[in-house]
Amino acid sequence: MKKIFTLAVIIGFSFLVYTKFVEAAHALGFVKYYKVTVLESSSKETVKCNTWAFGVIDQTGLEEEYQSCISNYQKQGYEIINQQGT
Q1: What percent of the chain has pLDDT over 70?
Q2: Is residue 63 a contact partner of residue 49, using CB atoms and an 8 Å limit?
Q3: Average pLDDT over residues 6-15
Q4: Minimal CA–CA distance to 48: which of 16, 23, 85?
Q5: pLDDT mean over 63-74
Q6: What's the 3-state SS for the chain?
Q7: Which domain holds residue 26?
Q8: How far apart are CA 68 and CA 7, in angstroms?
Q9: Pick from 61, 57, 40: which is nearest to 49 by CA?
Q10: Cα gap 59→66, rounded to integer Å
Q11: For the chain, what is the domain count?
């Protein structure tokens, strides 16, 4: 019983430290950024355009590259079937 209680306290403390670390990282400008888009052609071929980063990032530059990838495939006749991300 004592081991279970100790384990529960350690897990609780670890969770608290993790959440405070994430809050501090966001306050300092660190971000987690990701986006994924799946495109499909009329012949059912699928491709992915994605971008991701963690830290202090140039979000504008990443977004431009990501949108450029999507635009290039759309010019070739691909259509967006799924988009995810922050």
Answers
A1: 98
A2: no
A3: 89
A4: 85
A5: 92
A6: CHHHHHHHHHHHHHHHHHHHHHHHHHHCCCEEEEEEEEEECCCCCEEEEEEEEEECCCHHHHHHHHHHHHHHHHHCCCEEEEEEEC
A7: 2-85
A8: 49
A9: 40
A10: 10
A11: 1
Residue 50, strand partner residues: 36
Place of tokens 């830290």: 55
At 18-53, the pLDDT tens digits run 888 777 777 777 777 889 999 999 888 999 999 888
Instruction: Indicate if the alpha-carbon torsion angle 35, 66, 52, 57 is positive or negative.
Output: negative
State the SS3 of 55-72: ECCCHHHHHHHHHHHHHH
On whether the pTM is more than 0.70, the answer is: no
Distance (Å) of CA 50 to CA 14, 25, 55, 67: 32, 23, 17, 10
* 44: alpha, beta or left? (left if phi > 0; alpha if psi -120 to 50): left
